[in-house]
Write a structure and sequence with these properties.
This protein has about 800 residues and is an alpha/beta fold. Helices cover about 50% and strands about 15% of the residues. It has three domains: about 80 residues, no CATH class; about 375 residues, Rossmann fold, CATH 3.40.50; about 270 residues, Rossmann fold (3-Layer(aba) Sandwich), CATH 3.40.50.2000. The strands form six sheets. Strands 1, 4, 7, 8, 11, 12, 13, 14, 18 and 19 form a ten-stranded mixed β-sheet that branches. Strands 22-21-20-23-24-25 form a six-stranded parallel β-sheet, sandwiched between helices. It binds ligand 26W. The site of ligand 26W has 23 residues, from helix 6.
């Protein structure tokens, strides 16, 4: 046994006992879901002691704690990950095998914890894994959505959204903490009174309340005994009562409060990178922020009586602007409840809050109408007004007479509350998530703020956890690596550089490619089972999986596939290396052109996959319901990683890192963290193409790009575009893709044609794809590049990212947990 806590016989006895208590079943009568539950409870039992010990150690050592405030935690599944982290995966796998169960099948019984949309939510989950592994005291603070990210079905080529009732079978890992519930107030009005000393005091009345009830989830760190907590808040009505027994006024209020509680945490907003301005979303934001901050302050006050030193024991990291109300909520508590004067409260707040920016897409910026904000959060609004008044004074002091600065930087302007400006003003740290992204923030998006307060700005290039995306997702490669360089890479990913010596070793190359082949077989089977399409694992697996967004340019990819198909049809004799193009993407439910792009991919897939004449040279596959769990399989099986966003638009990307770690070669633009990936692995081991960020920004500012010129002069592109509107792929609806065609060629009221430079980059992309093919034909050269990609991925561990946050921003000390205490 690797983990001494894990004794095989005792473990299986516990599973049997749990089956009985939970389901009144014996092992031979249990179904896979029941086994999943029983095994999970058994794992939780093991974790609980360590969790308690961590809590005890935290109590004694009283360390500074980071509260990672995030509306999203895209955790994926817990069971396999926990088994990996407590170092019991293989043992439990064997034990289950002995009684005829396959752990993989049992793992598939767990629903993904899809409490997030994409990059931002998954990053939060990776950070929790790294924090626990490194032994830093941390709480993840979020929302226990009843329905997570929708489940995607593809029906007749179209995306259909199904509710994600992830809690249906119960969640064996969570713990309800009713005793820690907090009241959160909405609406009403604020009046002021003089207290006995003649000081004015604000009184909030006529509000509606909900009870925020926390559910705690253990976050296991690898190997060590440190277990952190993810605290997600559920909403319940304050009082459960007999509605009849109230007089009329109370009755109405009681009904409203019940409804508020019911709706509040019902569903995750499925918009990624797009702000919709929904009232309920602002409620969700304030709800989880208020509850989390109250809990943090309560914890602080148990041991300390000087609230002015809160920053010595707590730091609130704001995951994008979604929790920006933290700044004002903390001010409210410090002033109204703790009695601090404004200046002291502001100093505490400013030393306690830090903000991470994850996007420069203009449509993602959160700004709330004053009317809505002040109606929903009257006291918070007052405080934001005062923060704004003082901030504007400061701007004036720095730039006397420059009204443009105020227009651009004020927190409240033109009828709106700007959440990014609030976060920047209220934080001591503002960071971007990749070097290029941070530079764009400083030079462009947040230029004025950077000029006024340069010291706040810093970069923290994203990372990913190798425990989930290599050790769990790719057992074969993980074992191969450990056989060569030992297991240290599991907690120190820079160790992977020791693999460089194998890059030119023939045997190692062979083995590496064999592992890739086996992982491709696994995905081929998944595709056969789910799509009914048979794909050849000897073909190049070329994969683009991420949210569907125009800036990510899935359209560029599929247009290029259409072009290749045209070429093969015209030159059937041509030597073409077989390729499987795999897509996976969810589109926000209201994002028309994104949904149409999904239909296009599926329409192209239908035609190409069924065309016998091309002899399986191309296959196109759309993976339904792309999520964390099937992602793990896909990264392991990729030869080519598609990272083709319009340069300057992708803040960092993290999928790019997961592919690299698993030995895929990147075809991509110099965007986000791709830049740093190429720095690490060398440009000769990637396929870089397209406009640079500077060039894109130049065109955006000065014009000079007209896609029609390309349309007029490039026959290949013209042919492909014509096929969007002549029924080539959808004979029954010839004009189905007219809107996509128009988006590329017609100037709209809101933007230039081809906003994302798809036609501009097309030729270079096609050429880069040719280089991919040539490189792949030389299996040794490819294997060398693939090994080097894995070997050079060390920088991209979220362990490194977290250590940087700790050193530069959070200033935390590790907790030492002694299990025998
Ligand atoms: C208000 C709607 C909304 C919802 C989500 C706006 C913005 C978001 C997120 C900030 C979008 C997001 O997930 N951004 C991604 O963050 C990742 C982690 O830093 C980066 O790797 C991705 O490049 C970035 O798109």
């Amino acid at each position: 046994m690797q983990n001494e806590l894990l004794n095989k016989e005792r473990f299986m006895q516990n599973v049997k006992d749990n089956l009985k208590t939970l389901y009144r079943r014996n092992m031979d009568e249990a179904n896979p879901q029941q086994i999943f539950q029983a095994v999970s409870y058994t794992v939780k039992d093991i974790i609980i002691d360590q969790w308690l010990a961590t809590q005890k150690a935290m109590d004694e050592q009283d360390p500074k704690i980071v509260y990672y405030l995030s509306m999203e935690f895209l955790m994926g599944r817990a069971l396999g990950n926990n088994l990996i982290n407590i170092q019991g995966y293989k043992e439990v796998e064997e034990a289950l095998k002995d009684i005829g169960f396959d752990l993989n099948v049992i793992e598939d019984e767990e629903r993904d914890w899809a409490l997030g949309n994409g990059g931002l939510g998954r990053l939060a989950a990776c950070f929790l894994d790294s924090l626990a592994t490194l032994g830093y005291p941390a709480y993840g603070c979020g929302i226990r959505y009843k329905y997570g990210m929708f489940r995607q079905a593809i029906i007749n080529g179209y995306q259909v959204e199904w509710p994600d009732n992830w809690l249906k079978n119960g969640n064996p890992f969570e713990l309800k903490r009713a005793e820690r519930a907090k009241e959160v107030k909405f609406g009403g009005y604020v009046r002021w009174e003089n207290d006995e000393h003649g000081h004015s005091k604000f009184i909030h009345e006529g509000y509606q309340s909900v009870l925020a009830v926390p559910y705690d989830v253990p976050i296991t760190g690898y190997g060590d005994y440190n277990i952190n907590t993810l605290r997600i808040w559920d909403a319940e009505p304050m009082n459960i009562f007999e509605l009849e027994s109230f007089d009329k006024g109370d009755y109405q209020k009681a009904v409203q409060e019940q409804n508020l509680a019911k709706n509040l945490v019902e569903v995750l907003y499925p918009n990624d990178n797009h702000y919709a301005g929904k009232e309920l979303r602002l409620k969700q934001q304030y709800f989880f922020v208020s509850a989390s901050i109250q809990a943090a302050i309560e914890k602080y006050k148990k041991k300390h009586d000087d609230i002015r030193k809160l920053y010595e024991k707590a730091v609130f990291q704001l995951n994008d602007t979604h929790p920006s109300v933290t700044v004002a909520e903390l001010m409210r508590i410090l002033i109204d409840e703790e009695g601090l004067p404004w200046d002291e409260a502001w100093e505490v707040t400013n030393k306690t809050c830090a903000y991470t920016n994850h996007t420069i897409m203009a449509e993602a910026l959160e700004k709330w109408p004053i009317e809505l904000f002040s109606r929903l959060l009257p006291r918070i609004y007052q405080i934001v007004e005062e923060i704004n008044r003082r901030f504007v004074l400061e701007i004036q002091k720095n730039y006397p007479g420059d009204s443009k600065k105020i227009e651009k930087m004020a927190i409240i302007y033109d009828g709106q509350v700007k959440m990014a400006h609030l976060a920047i003003a209220g934080s001591f740290s503002v960071n971007g998530v990749a070097h290029l992204h941070t530079e764009i923030l400083k030079k462009k998006e947040l230029k004025d703020f950077y000029e006024m307060m340069p010291l706040k700005f810093n970069n923290k290039t994203n990372g990913i956890t190798q425990r989930r995306f290599l050790l769990h997702g790719n057992h074969l490669l993980a074992d191969w690596i450990s056989d060569r360089i030992g297991k240290e890479w599991i907690t120190d990913l820079t160790q992977l550089s020791k693999l460089k010596v194998y890059a030119e070793d023939k045997k190692a190359q062979q083995e590496f490619m064999n592992i890739k082949y086996k992982n491709k077989e696994r995905v081929a089977k998944y595709i056969l089972d789910h799509n009914g399409v048979s794909v050849n694992p000897r073909s190049i697996f070329d994969i683009q999986v991420k949210r569907l967004h125009e800036y990510k340019r899935q359209l560029l990819n599929i247009l290029h596939v259409m072009h290749l198909y045209n070429v093969i049809k015209e030159h059937p004799e041509m030597d073409f290396y077989p390729r499987t193009f795999i897509f996976g993407a969810k589109a926000a439910a209201g994002y028309r052109i994104a949904k149409l792009t999904i239909k296009l991919i599926n329409a192209v897939a239908d035609v190409i996959n069924n065309d016998k004449s091309i002899q399986n040279k191309i296959k196109v596959v759309f993976i339904e319901d792309y999520n964390v769990s099937n992602a793990e399989l896909l990264f392991a099986a990729a030869d080519v990683s598609e990272q083709i966003s319009t340069a300057s638009k992708e803040a960092s990307g993290t999928g790019n890192m997961k592919f690299m770690l698993n030995g895929a070669l990147t075809i991509g633009t110099l965007d986000g963290a791709n830049v740093e990936i190429v720095e690490e692995v060398g440009i000769e081991n990637a396929f870089i193409f397209g406009l640079t960020a500077d060039e894109v920004i130049q065109y955006e500012q000065n014009g000079g790009y007209n896609p029609m010129d390309i349309f007029n002069h490039d026959q290949d592109i013209r042919k492909v575009l014509m096929q969007l509107i002549n029924g080539f792929y959808t004979p029954d609806e010839p004009e189905l893709f007219r809107d996509i065609y128009n988006s590329l060629l017609n100037t709209h009221s809101t933007s230039r044609a081809d906003t994302y430079f798809i036609l501009k980059d097309f030729k270079e992309y096609a050429h880069a794809q040719k280089r991919v093919e040539e490189h792949y034909r030389n299996q040794k050269a490819w294997a060398k590049s693939a090994i080097l990609n894995t070997a050079c991925a060390g920088k991209f561990s979220s362990d490194r990212t977290i250590q940087e946050y700790v050193d530069d921003i959070w200033k935390l000390k590790k907790v030492v947990v002694d299990l025998d205490k």
